[in-house]
Specification:
Shape: elongated
Largest sheet: 3 strands, antiparallel
Radius of gyration: 21 Å
Strand content: 5-15%
Number of strands: 3
Structural class: mainly alpha
Order of helices and strands: HHEEEH
Strand order of the largest sheet: 1-2-3
Distance between the termini: 47 Å
Oligomer: single chain
Amino acid sequence: MLVVIVMFLLAVPVTGCLLFVKAVRVAVSRRLTRKSGAAAWAEGAGWLLCCAVLAYGVGVGAMFLSPWPDWCPVVTSHDGPDPSAVPPHPRVENSWFPLEARCVSDIHAPVDFIPAAVNPVLLTSLAGAAGCASMAVLHRRGEKSR
């Protein structure tokens, strides 16, 4: 798991640079792509996957690099809070997809460590990539049947 986390953290600057270069190219040429048909849809799917990787990497980075409050335990307990412990029964709730890292307590307000835009961008990019890939397959089948 540590290798996957390191790979995502290393992919963030690379993907960010790729998306920046693509944005500059689009702004200069005023065209999204030079390709047409199925190749254009496949390229769109690739760029949307780059956006998803960037969003996921930013979320994982925020999960590990955000300062945690003093009252929040760093170690997670999957069994829930110890009933014999005194309140506030702080606990950490983590999820890898969709990204979630929250510190919850009985008396403190929940603290979320993932930026609010990460999960919507991630899910929208993945859905868009799936749609673009589907359109590429449909166009490819249409080109072969002609």
